[in-house]
Batch of 3 targets.
Target 1
Amino acid sequence: MGNGTERAKGKVEEIKGALKEGVGDLIGNEQMQAEGQVEKVQGQVRQDVAKAEEQVKGIGEELGGKIRGAAGSLIGNEQMQAEGKVKELKGKGRQKANR
């Protein structure tokens, strides 16, 4: 399952929980309110886990890019250096997008 899908499912779960919590509060149903709070937090956690997974992927890409770029520099291969830089920047972008 894609990471974007997990984030979206987490957001839906969070919204559903918030609505349930609100309805429970409105009608004075403490159990419904508590269940809604739990669902809301579960949704937030699901989103946070998905973001963390993407950050780890970004760190791996950034590191891999730096290594490839350094190897290219070491052997004088400009294409390898450029590919490494692209991968490094992609990794940094992935990390920034998932803060």
Note: Residues 72 and 79 are 7 Å apart (CA to CA).
Target 2
Amino acid sequence: MHCENCKVELDETMLFCWSCGAPIKQNEASKNGEDTASDIKTAVETKNELDAQHETKTTHTEPLKMAVEQDREKDVQTKTTSANETKMKVGPSEMTSNATDMETNSHEHTVAHTANVETADVDSEQQAAQQVAATSDRAHSHHAANFSDQVKDTFLQATERINRMVGEEGQIDLNLRDVFSDIFKKHSKEEAEKLFITGTELTTPKEKDISTSWPKPWLFARIFVVFAITYLLLSISAYTFDNIYAIPGLIVIGSFAVPFSLLIFFWETNAPRNISIYEIAKMFFIGGAASLVTTLILYSVFPVGAELTYGGAIVVGIVEEVGKLVIIAYFIYNQNSKYILNGLLIGAAIGAGFAAFESAGYAFAFGMFYGDSVMTEVIFLRAWLAIGTHTVWSAIAGAALVYVKGNKQLSSDTFVNAKFIQLFAIPVILHAVWDMPLYALHNFNLLFIILIVIAWIFIFTLMNAGLKQIGRLHRDA
């Protein structure tokens, strides 16, 4: 006999099709009466309930229906093959049990398969997310590396051009991380004391013993920490205990912290070690104050308005840089310095003194007119800006003087030399642009940051030229 639904050949004793599960209509002769009909009805109802449960539980796995059906057909075919091989005849009641087991097994297999697929989907999503994150990290690293390389290339190209201005060739061999590597190392008190006694007749090295390698300054950072702690304690005295007598100290320490620390940096990088801390202090205090006087004299001849225009900013750049240059030239003449690194140091000393006194004056004036909070803002603003203003501008001017005069005594010819004018124009231009009303570039202090970077490119290039100068002196000796 055959199934009316799928036409598969069946045993006469079967009540359900082994292939599609449809009930089989039996001949009257082969029926076993009312009991058999009742069994068939019960089996059909059981099957319908199982089908309904199966459809309800697997509705959310509709995308997996085809895969489940294929597995189900394979299970049924396997069971049928086994049944045919053993040639077992199944009675009505046993057929019902087998159908129920078949549906139950199929359902369990479906649920297990669905869970496995869902787990696989989750794993796939996680792997995809990890791949995306890894790709994103690689992309960011690649962009960061590219940006870093571009900055380094720009820096090296700039140093090559500046090198030509001071008679050198090629790019500078500079590793900033290595130069500042000693800042976070532990140093003893004896190391600091040895530094402070350099520059005397007994401690100045002979020319052949001067180091030509890049110095690794660290003391300047300790000096800055001393200023910072002092400022903090004075701030507590002034604002926690309402002690107005701490305000002058607050102004002085806050205004001197960065310029004086920068001066120590230039003192540490002075490879010849031929200028003592006493001489540096003299240049800082007396030279700084004297440069204010010469500048004010020039301002009396070339006055500028309260609000700077582009023309006024140019006048300020020329007047203040020339005013400081007069004092720088005086100390270079007295020292008769021939090393470019000496010129950097002497110029930095005058510029640092000028910056410290000027910042103290601004802090005092704003405090008088606008109160303590504005005064504090001015102190902090001018403190961090001081890393790229008067100290480094004057250092460039001092190095230019020494480079042009060479071993000769400083004379008026030095100031009209084309090479000197070209180099001295750098701090004048930087200063003038700094004061120009370029307000669009004041967002995020962009203008100031750019000018600071440019100034320090010149500083490091001049340091490199100074070290090469010493190397040539070694070879000529």
Note: The chain has a mean pLDDT of 82.
Target 3
Amino acid sequence: MRSHFSLLAFGLFVPSVVACGNGQSQNHSSGIGPDASTGSDASKVGSPTDGGVSDGNTADVPLGEGGASLCNDGGAFLFCDGFEDTNLSDNWSQTQYANAPPPQADSVHYYRGTHALHARTYAVVDAGAAAYSTIQKLASSGSWPAHFFTRLFVYQPSPSPPSPEGLLDLINTTSPYAGIELISNPLGPSGGLATFTYNTSTDQGWPSDAGLALDQWVCFEVEVDTFNSVSHVYMNGVEVTALAGMKLGLPALGNVSVGMSFFSPIAGQKEEDSWIDEVAVSTSRIGCSN
């Protein structure tokens, strides 16, 4: 998300609405939930898991393909949320959104449990007008450890967005908010992935042809070591070596931001959706089965 973060006091959850770059006013009263697809990932699983729960006025919702959320299993996490508590302010610090509704938890797609975070952005009228819908967790001590891991599951429906899409940002909590971002980069050679640092003294980027698979859950884990100034990205448990970063030049990072962000989208980009589940932060490798 780069220049669009406005950090609030730690522990304070306040939705933050940032005006669109073009200053246009548009009517987006539809929100996320009512007009989203009503099918759930669990319906695609051959043998639904027992123990469904009631989701509002809908029928019982079966557990996701990954089973029950593991965020409450007492694992060695610094933070973990599977979005089963749909009141996001209970676990997250703040939201950020522009040309988009605020992110929310729903049961349209979910990897574990019965809910996941749903991010949506509206259609882009003018090229370069940022569009994003994200949620942020600020470390209670002001920063995460110098060496830490962030794991998340991502569901991106087809077709792939035509602009580079930010999935995860790890950010310093003071101006100029230096950070590192994981993006799905459809402008690359084969619609691959990329990581890059921003607002540092020497920003860098690392592209990869390894792409984000569509219409299925993909497990990502990003390792950052600000002391040794290196980073690594793992997809479905395997390192994407082309994304290994060196000489990052990053300060301590205290903000984990997930969702969907388009920093400079192309004109005419349509409404986009994505889902995030089981976001975890730890001082050691988390993997996809925890």
Note: Confidence is low (pLDDT under 50) at residues 3-59.
